[in-house]
Amino acid sequence: MYLRSMLAAACAVTLAACGGSGGNLYLGGQVYGLAKDGLILRNGSEDLAVAAGSSSFYFTNLIKTDDRYAITIAQQPKGAVCTLENGSGKASSYSVTTAIVSCVTNTYPLTGSITGLTANKLTLVIGNNSTSPLAGATSYTFPAIADGAAYNISILTNPTGQTCRFQGSTSADGHDIVGTMGSAATTAATLACTPN
């Protein structure tokens, strides 16, 4: 009997240390697509910061059977928009993990100037994204680059009879330019093309 009392007391202390007020159920859910810091979720008076890259979240305060919960987004991450599903309800006798937070990072156009382009077959790439400005074009555009993403624009193919180089490139052949996408439309390096 004495041992049982000690175990019960130890369990109560453990639950209290976890932030619960007599509860023994976790409240949380899944996170998808969170690439930016700054997301804050709220349930009642408790705020929970969720770090970039997280795939799940759990509030510190435990809840009890029949407790009502209402998770909301108290603050959006900078440069992204998150939505919440299954955020409210009434707890049964099991931990609640059905909330879903889905986030999409804002995207903006990345553009740059072109000089001297007199032929076709120029192809620029960023990862799997490509663009092929035609002869006479004075600019290039990648329409949707994620806020804060590091980018590396490369020349996949030069135009017929010409060689193009990025001004300010640190690569030996001038075929690459690196940078970081801003939180709005961003201008990248000028591409200069000359006859072979």
Brief characterization of the structure:
A hairpin with a 2-residue loop joins strand 10 (123-126) and strand 11 (129-131). 8% of the residues lie in helices and 48% in strands. It is mostly beta strands.
Describe this structure in words.
The chain is mostly beta strands and 196 residues long. It is 8% helix and 48% strand. It contains 1 helix and 17 strands. Strands 9, 12, 14, 16 and 17 form a 5-stranded mixed sheet that branches. The chain has a 4-stranded mixed sheet with strand order 4-1-8-6, with no helix packed on it. Strands 3-2-5-7 form a 4-stranded antiparallel sheet, with no helix packed on it. The longest helix has 16 residues, at 2-17.
Structural class: mainly beta
The biggest beta sheet reads: 5 strands, mixed
Uncertain runs with pLDDT below 50, 5 residues or more?
1-20
* CA(first)-CA(last) distance: 93 Å
Secondary-structure element pattern, one letter each: HEEEEEEEEEEEEEEEEE
The average pLDDT is 90
What is the 3D shape? rod-shaped
What is the helical fraction, as a range of percent? under 10%
* DSSP E strands, number: 17
Radius of gyration: 27 Å
So how many helices? 1
Percent in strands? over 45%
